[in-house]
Amino acid sequence: MEFLSDSVVLSRMQFAFTAIFHILWPVLTTGMGIYLVIIEGVWLRTRNPDYYLHARFWSKFYVLNFGIGVATGIPMEFQFGTNWSPFSEAVGNFFGSVIGFEASWAFMLEAAFLGIMLFGWERVNPAIHYLSTILVAVGANLSTLWILTANSWMQTPAGGELVNGKFVVHDYFQAILNPFMVNSVLHMFFATLETSLFVIGGISAWYILQRRNTAFFSKSLKITLAAAIAVAPLQIYIGHLSGEQVYHYQPTKLAAMEAQWESSPAGKPADWSLLAIPNAKAEKNDWEITIPNALGYILEFKQNLSQPLRGLKEWKPEDRPKMVGLIYYAFRIMIGIGFFFAGLMLLSTLQWLRGKLSADNISQQRWLMWGWVFAAPLGYIAVESGWIVRCVGRQPWVLYGQIRTADGASNLPASNVLVSLSAFAIVYSVLFIAALYFGSRIIRTGPNLDLPIPGVEITKPAVDTTPAEFVPDERPVEAQQ
């Protein structure tokens, strides 16, 4: 329990906890925003009321995730001033402005048009409403752009240099377009989209298994499947490109990802570790299953390595990532989920081509529907695993190769950080329970299929204007008084 007296470790734990919790919510809003743009666009083009009802139903999940995402995202940025003030002071010339772009460009745009998207269906012109939906989606994805730009710069700092402990920017655009930036943004963009598609598909599959509104939810499942046909393979390919960049720019991280203790020379093949039990103390793997000569094919699509693959032993223990086992298995979990998504997409596409996903017989594909239900939470696990690899693998550097994590942390009493970490744990647990409650209530209630459709007049029964026949009062005169 020595870590309880180490403020640096506690600050890292606090940031990791808040980041792991926060990322759960924008993952869905950024991807689902694009889905809502597609679904509303199809409704405007076809005027099929089902697509309008889909847009109204799925937007409920959007606003739920948006609210919690905002509430949990702001404290993360505050931590750069509270727990990581030396880092913020050193790199604020660039890092601070990029984080500011995320708030002013992305969050403000998203928040400004969210009300119109949610409540303007019968109050504004359909074109204006659709524009609002597009701008909300753009805002959500601009957030991904700037956050990944900032984090990529921490991974591969560019565009300036440290002078007397402060980062001086020489080329702002070079700093933005650092070596990791493009692939990192694309990898996260497709991760959010893929996660959202399989969440929507999983919820739709659950309704189909329950035989509730089968025809309605077969549409949303097939829309997500059509998008996944492109997204799932692209995500695997972009993930490979990101791995190649780690190979060239962050050799210590790659060695930890592969639990590679010994170096492999250039011009020779290298074995790939499929499963292993890394032992950092003994600097070896206690047990492993390897695939001979496979690592070159994974990294470069050829057997022999074009450059040396350095093992962890080439660095001093204080210069290499800790928790090698966590990095190693988080990487494999992320890869495994990516290939599972691709496999589920392929099987579902085959069944679709065979005519098995029509509204009449889709409920008979129970094994396939359960596959989609099982896939619904996996995207979150893959995203969390990817961020673990990305950030834990960067250690011991907060700015890779230039500022150590220990030097970037604020000098705070450990007891103070422990109190704030405990408070975050309590509040976020309440938020998580509330999200599960309201999310499950949305699912239990289901879509409101009786909503009035904009532009469609409701037919009212005609008023009978035929004069009524006069009936004389036959009661006694005394009773009529």
TrEMBL record:
<keyword id="KW-0249">Electron transport</keyword>
<dbReference type="GO" id="GO:0005886">
    <property type="term" value="C:plasma membrane"/>
</dbReference>
<feature type="transmembrane region" description="Helical">
    <location>
        <begin position="417"/>
        <end position="438"/>
    </location>
</feature>
<keyword id="KW-0349">Heme</keyword>
<keyword id="KW-0472">Membrane</keyword>
<dbReference type="GO" id="GO:0046872">
    <property type="term" value="F:metal ion binding"/>
</dbReference>
<feature type="transmembrane region" description="Helical">
    <location>
        <begin position="367"/>
        <end position="389"/>
    </location>
</feature>
<feature type="transmembrane region" description="Helical">
    <location>
        <begin position="57"/>
        <end position="74"/>
    </location>
</feature>
<feature type="transmembrane region" description="Helical">
    <location>
        <begin position="326"/>
        <end position="347"/>
    </location>
</feature>
<keyword id="KW-0479">Metal-binding</keyword>
<feature type="transmembrane region" description="Helical">
    <location>
        <begin position="188"/>
        <end position="209"/>
    </location>
</feature>
<feature type="transmembrane region" description="Helical">
    <location>
        <begin position="94"/>
        <end position="121"/>
    </location>
</feature>
<keyword id="KW-0812">Transmembrane</keyword>
<feature type="transmembrane region" description="Helical">
    <location>
        <begin position="128"/>
        <end position="148"/>
    </location>
</feature>
<dbReference type="GO" id="GO:0009055">
    <property type="term" value="F:electron transfer activity"/>
</dbReference>
<keyword id="KW-1003">Cell membrane</keyword>
<dbReference type="GO" id="GO:0020037">
    <property type="term" value="F:heme binding"/>
</dbReference>
<dbReference type="Pfam" id="PF01654">
    <property type="entry name" value="Cyt_bd_oxida_I"/>
</dbReference>
<protein>
    <submittedName>
        <fullName>Cytochrome ubiquinol oxidase subunit I</fullName>
    </submittedName>
</protein>
<dbReference type="GO" id="GO:0070069">
    <property type="term" value="C:cytochrome complex"/>
</dbReference>
<keyword id="KW-0813">Transport</keyword>
<comment type="similarity">
    <text>Belongs to the cytochrome ubiquinol oxidase subunit 1 family.</text>
</comment>
<keyword id="KW-1133">Transmembrane helix</keyword>
<dbReference type="InterPro" id="IPR002585">
    <property type="entry name" value="Cyt-d_ubiquinol_oxidase_su_1"/>
</dbReference>
<keyword id="KW-0408">Iron</keyword>
<dbReference type="GO" id="GO:0016682">
    <property type="term" value="F:oxidoreductase activity, acting on diphenols and related substances as donors, oxygen as acceptor"/>
</dbReference>
<feature type="transmembrane region" description="Helical">
    <location>
        <begin position="20"/>
        <end position="45"/>
    </location>
</feature>
<feature type="transmembrane region" description="Helical">
    <location>
        <begin position="221"/>
        <end position="238"/>
    </location>
</feature>
<dbReference type="GO" id="GO:0019646">
    <property type="term" value="P:aerobic electron transport chain"/>
</dbReference>
